[in-house]
């Protein structure tokens, strides 16, 4: 990541990354398909952990709450300091190739979450909506958490605030509307 920050993502080559990591280019390509994969190196481990957690805690009666709780409950700082996550997030947002890959990763996560929710008995349409909306709710909260000062913001509390905002714009139907 430091090399990307120094030279810019677009200006950094796989050869330079390998050299900085003190490995051959061939070794680099054994581990990473391309330089974009370096930015998302933890994606599969993260996905597996979140899917496993959702599978053990999903509540078919509250699928959206299940998704947001799993995402909020993960130890995001295990992926690096908040500052390093801020830098990564800025790099992704400023690079179309990385942004596209990030959106694909979010889509894959939503598909996996939807599948888990359906296995738990949630109707397919509701499962898909809960997964996609839950991920968007979390992304909004995550970016607010990244923007906050170190040690001043609790991610779970920010998720609750974003869920409350969602509920304020999409309240539950009244009895007379059902």
From TrEMBL:
- Which keywords belong to this entry? DNA-binding, Transcription, Transcription regulation
- The domain of life is Bacteria
Q: Does the keyword Transcription regulation apply?
A: yes
In terms of Pfam families, this protein maps to: TetR_N
Coiled-coil stretches noted in the UniProt entry, renumbered to this chain: none
List the InterPro entries.
Answer: DNA-bd_HTH_TetR-type_CS, Homeodomain-like_sf, HTH-type_TetR-like_transc_reg, HTH_TetR
Alphabetized GO MF terms:
DNA-binding transcription factor activity; transcription cis-regulatory region binding
Which residue ranges does the Swiss-Prot or TrEMBL entry mark as DNA-binding? Answer: 13-32
Q: What sequence ranges are listed for the domain HTH tetR-type?
A: 1-50
| Residues spanning the signal sequence | none
Q: What is this protein called?
A: Putative transcription regulator
Q: Report the source organism.
A: Mycolicibacterium smegmatis (strain MKD8) (Mycobacterium smegmatis)
């Amino acid at each position: 990541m430091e090399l990307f920050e120094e030279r810019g993502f677009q200006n950094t080559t796989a050869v330079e990354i390998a050299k900085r990591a003190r490995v051959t280019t061939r070794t680099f390509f054994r581990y990473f398909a391309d330089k974009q994969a370096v930015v998302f190196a933890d994606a599969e481990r993260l996905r597996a952990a979140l899917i496993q957690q959702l599978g053990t805690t999903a509540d078919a009666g509250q699928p959206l709450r299940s998704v947001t709780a799993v995402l909020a409950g993960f130890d995001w700082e295990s992926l690096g300091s908040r500052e390093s996550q801020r830098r990564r997030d800025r790099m992704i947002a400023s690079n179309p190739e990385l942004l596209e890959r990030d959106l694909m990763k979010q889509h894959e996560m939503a598909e996996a979450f939807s599948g888990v929710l359906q296995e738990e008995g949630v109707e397919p349409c509701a499962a898909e909506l809960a997964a996609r909306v839950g991920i968007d709710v979390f992304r909004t909260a995550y970016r607010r958490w990244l923007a906050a000062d170190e040690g001043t913001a609790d991610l779970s509390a920010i998720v609750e605030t974003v869920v409350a905002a969602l509920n304020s714009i999409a309240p539950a139907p009244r009895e007379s509307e059902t």
